[in-house]
Design brief:
- The complex is a heterodimer of chains A (237) and B (253).
- Chain A is an all-alpha fold and 237 residues long.
- Chain A has a single domain, classed as Phosphate transport system protein phou homolog 2, domain 2 (Methane Monooxygenase Hydroxylase, Chain G, domain 1, Up-down Bundle), CATH 1.20.58.220.
- Chain A has 7 helices and no strands.
- In chain A, helix 1 packs antiparallel against helix 4.
- The longest helix of chain A is centred in the middle third of the chain and has 35 residues.
- Chain A starts with 9 loop residues before the first helix and ends with a helix.
- With 253 residues, chain B is an alpha/beta fold.
- Chain B has a domain of 169 residues: Rossmann fold.
- Chain B is built from 11 helices and 10 strands.
- The longest helix of chain B is centred in the middle third of the chain and has 14 residues.
- Classes of the chains: A mainly alpha (237), B alpha/beta (253).
């Protein structure tokens, strides 16, 4: 149950809005970094790759700022209920975004190495995987900003689609590696790139789970694993 | 097994003359738990608390509707004597109020009134009560000094010792830490948590953190009505009612 009225202490609303804005800016930076990392790989643009690596510092700084602002709100205002969940989920979303940006950096570093060698057409296999991962990331953040628990909880299913796409590409690249030749190193780089995108999907699912916690005060993490364990323990199930 | 409805408030309404202070309150307070009553000033929380040992009977022109039962028996049963009821239901007030007597005599005041004067019994009650109130070690060498020589926090714990000397079943606390500094407040809160193994405790507090720290259940009252009542963790993490969320979050107009 969320209350829309302003807080009696005006500084609380100011601190709270500032926290939310910093998370939004960080999410924008992170998505942009991921987009530029993939674009740098696809278009063989060295400047883009370098920009992603350099701009990751801004994302790191944003995470630090969000943690400091969250801690400040906890210490000064002792928030409860929705306000408390908002502070906790903002700090967790920031941690996930920081790791996503690290994956963008990993992709850019791989791309930089690939630029030193001849282009391989299999690079094009990355784009559809990126499209799925970015779609999940976009909706994960939307679920968090809109407090949309249903959207947040739906992302796990879409991550399965990403996992399937990831496996297909890994399968194709593994076959190419088995065939041998000068392009083996490029294929290995692409395997790491597609693995990074698969991890981006996982982290976006985590953000979706944070949105569910924010919206409904429910912890849905590891729900499938827990359900499977319960089923294992009870042979009648 | 502790009883779930040890204090059963049943469609209870209360009136100061024409003014209705409580409206059809229904709540079951469990035995050996701490239940906090929260809400803005004038919401009826102290009125409800004071009805649990019929303190409000002392005010002229009051009347009630509905019932409050202690361990299944109505407080308003004509066979119940108010004096014996108050032995079963001890009370601690906002401002510590020791009597102008020694520490020792404060603790056993109600026993003296009841004509119990055996030294051995009184000594035992004093030590047991002061130990339960986490005060024994601090005052055992000053038992015959004036109670006014104690610090504020010690005086409030002495009042708790006095309230539990008769071994009541229920302990009512009306903002027991309002006049204390943060350290003394934490000591009282710790004591409240310890005491719940022996007593059923109902506490009125304006301090949200205090309610969340030391109570098992919390009731939010507003304008004489019970808005929400449930496990404290749930009420402070994910309240069901918009008014509760607004109040505990500091957004109440």
């Amino acid at each position: 149950m969320e209350s829309k009225s302003p807080h009696i202490i005006r500084e609380f609303d100011a601190a709270f809005n500032s926290l939310g804005n910093t998370v939004s800016v960080m999410a924008g930076q992170t998505r942009l970094n991921l987009e530029r990392a993939v674009s740098g790989l696809m278009t063989r643009d060295l400047d883009l790759c370098r920009a992603v690596i350099a701009d990751d510092d801004d994302v790191d700084e944003a995470e630090r700022k969000i943690d400091a602002a969250g801690l400040d709100i906890l210490v000064r205002f002792h928030p409860v209920a929705t306000d408390l969940r908002k502070v906790i989920s903002s700090m967790k979303v920031a941690a996930a975004l920081e790791r996503i940006s690290d994956h963008a950096v990993n992709i850019s570093k791989r791309a930089k190495k690939m630029l030193q060698k001849q282009e391989v057409p299999e690079t094009q296999l990355i784009e559809p995987v990126y499209t799925i991962a970015d779609g999940i990331l976009k909706d994960a953040f939307l679920a968090y900003t809109d407090r949309n628990g249903s959207l947040g909880a739906s992302l796990r299913e879409r991550d399965l689609e990403l996992d399937r796409a990831h496996k297909r590409v890994i399968g194709t690249l593994s076959e190419r590696i088995e065939q041998g030749g000068d392009t083996t190193e490029a294929y290995l780089h692409l395997i790491f790139v597609v693995r990074s995108l698969e991890r981006v999907g996982d982290l976006a699912v985590n953000i979706g789970e944070d949105a569910v916690f924010l919206d409904r005060a429910e912890d849905i993490r590891y729900a499938r694993k827990r359900a499977a364990e319960i089923q294992d323990e009870d042979p009648d199930l | 097994m502790p009883r779930e409805d040890f204090i059963a408030v049943d469609k209870f309404s209360f009136f100061y003359g024409e003014k209705q202070a409580l409206h059809d309150i229904d709540m079951a307070i469990p035995q050996q738990e701490v239940t906090a009553l929260i809400g803005p000033s004038g919401c009826g929380k102290s009125t409800l608390l004071r009805n649990m040992n019929r303190m409000n009977d002392l005010i002229e022109g009051v009347r009630h509707r509905g019932d409050i039962r202690l361990n299944g028996k109505s407080l308003y049963d004509p066979r119940i004597e108010v004096i014996s009821l108050r032995k079963r239901v001890g009370m601690v007030f906002q401002k510590y109020n020791p009597f102008a007597k020694t520490v020792y005599e404060n603790v056993i005041f109600s026993l003296r009134v009841a004509g119990r004067n055996k030294k051995k019994e009184l000594d035992e009650v004093v030590e047991r009560s002061l130990r339960s109130a986490a005060l024994w070690d601090e005052v055992k060498d000053r038992l015959h000094d004036s109670a006014f020589g104690l610090s504020g926090g010690q005086q409030q714990r002495l009042c708790i010792a006095r309230a539990i000397a008769n071994q009541p079943e229920i302990l009512l606390m009306d903002e027991p830490c309002a006049a204390l500094d943060p350290t003394a407040t934490l000591k009282i809160e710790s004591l409240i948590r310890d005491l719940k193994s022996q007593f059923t405790i109902v506490i009125v507090t304006h301090n949200m953190e205090q309610a969340s720290r030391c109570s098992d259940r919390t009731a939010f009252l507003y304008m004489g009505r019970l808005v929400e009542y449930g496990p404290t963790k749930q009420l402070f993490e994910n309240p069901s009612e918009e008014d509760t969320e607004a109040y505990i979050s500091g957004r109440f107009s």
